[in-house]
Amino acid sequence: METPCDKYSREHSRIFSPVQEAALDWIERATNIRTNYPHMLSGKIQGAFLKMLVELTGASRILEVGTFTGYSAACLAFGLGDGGVVDTLELNDELEEMTREGWDRAGVSDRICLHIGDAMELIPPLGVYDIAFIDANKREYAAYFEAVLPHVKSGGMILVDDTLWDGKVYEENPSCDAQTRSLIAFNDALVSDTRVESVLLPLRHGLTLVRKL
Length: 213
Fold this sequence. Notes:
Layout: H1 4-11, H2 18-34, H3 44-57, E1 61-65, H4 71-78, E2 85-90, H5 96-106, E3 112-116, H6 119-122, E4 129-134, H7 141-148, E5 152-161, H8 178-190, E6 196-201, E7 207-212
Parallel strand pairs: 1-2, 1-4, 2-3, 4-5
Antiparallel strand pairs: 5-7, 6-7
């Protein structure tokens, strides 16, 4: 659900073209109609941040772990220059047709390569990336991070989504569910990881920016 802060931020941000806006609106509507967890969608503000970050860094190779309905992949692809590519990994193939239609509407199908399967098996042969975006099974964040880190160039970025988890990670008596426990452990380990620098932003459900040293 969009908060008043989210609404105000969205209404006072301008980064997408009319065609891009229309495509993202279609993906959002389709996600709300056809999936059980539409709140997993990145949304306009985070999507705009992803697009701008790609443009600012000049990234040409991006790895995404967790495609869902393709919203964030489209936003990442919007920021790419000629010849850039997003390799996006998704375990579930049930939403592939809808996802590809959204990318077609956004005009980014030629910049996105969808890989269906287990991310831990798919990542090793994929190459080296400027940016990686992790937004998949929260229980596996530590494993995803360790798998992704060797494939990000020195000075490159890893973005990790949902790291505030609706505030559950900093509650006085945090939930004992597996996802919350895993995110707490991941956040605690990352802040003391000397291989990287990181900053956790209160954007949407928490977005951690990691720079590989």
